[in-house]
Structures are given as structure tokens and as C-alpha cells.
Amino acid sequence: MPVLNVSIKRLDPEVELPRYAYAGDAGLDLRANAEVEIPPHGRALIPTGLAIAIPEGFAGFVQPRSGMALKRGLSIANTPGLIDSHYRGELKVIAVNLDPEQPIVIERGERIAQLVIQAVPVVNLVEVDELDKTDRGAGGFGSSGMA
Prior knowledge:
By secondary structure, the protein is mostly beta strands. The protein has one helix at residues 66-72, and strands at 7-10, 28-31, 36-38, 43-53, 58-64, 74-76, 81-83, 90-97, 104-106, 111-119. The strands form three sheets. A four-stranded antiparallel β-sheet has the order 1-4-8-6. A four-stranded antiparallel β-sheet has the order 2-10-5-7. The protein has a two-stranded antiparallel ribbon with strand order 3-9.
């Protein structure tokens, strides 16, 4: 399994560094660095107290934690959140409460999201007059379930 060294800085010396919950996991757990209450159908920007230097050729993708989504209705408004390799500011999570009735109270130190770091190629777009043909063609939005 390849290993990528990524520099991380604690902006708050007491914040816990992200880590994998289990060996083989794809996402590093990100934790809240503040107590935040999100009203029903509301949004909040939650700080993590961390900054990261993702190497060129890679990007970070912040994604919801499935347990928080199922149990409390917590998701991410712009999922997945994208962290470009040249960004050096604090990692923050744009959380959304999908519960129509109950507020969500996030405690400082609580795991709120996952960070997945992936290789991303530089893409050179080549304009053409016609695209190659595929079985799917232009079908989308449920087309694979239609006869």
C-alpha cells in the first residue's frame, strides 16, 4: 500500500490530529474545534483547528460520516468539499442539518467529517467535433433503469 506524507499544522495546540478509525479506511476523521448548534435545515461553518499542505497532484475531499448522517441528519452542504493542493488556510466544514425538527449540537472534539486525499491528474481538454460512441450515449438521470 503506497504511503503519502502530508504536512499538517495544528492552529490550536490542543486539537486532535485526524486519523483513520480502522486500518484500511479511506477517510481520516476530522473533528470540530468549537461547539456549534445547527438549527433544523440550517448550516454552519465548523472549524477544525488544522491547516494542511496537500502535495501538488493531489486534492483533499471532505465527506460526511455515514453514522452522523444516519443518526443525526448531519451532512456537508457542498459534499464533497474540495481542498486544492495550494490551499494553506484552516480546514473548515460546511455542515448542514437535514433533520426537519431537531437541532444538532456539535461538541468540540467530536468527529464531524472525513478527509480523503486522492491523486488528481492535470487534465488537458481537447476540443473535438464529435465524441466517441458508447452504450450509454447521452442517457442520464435514471437512464440505466429504463428499458
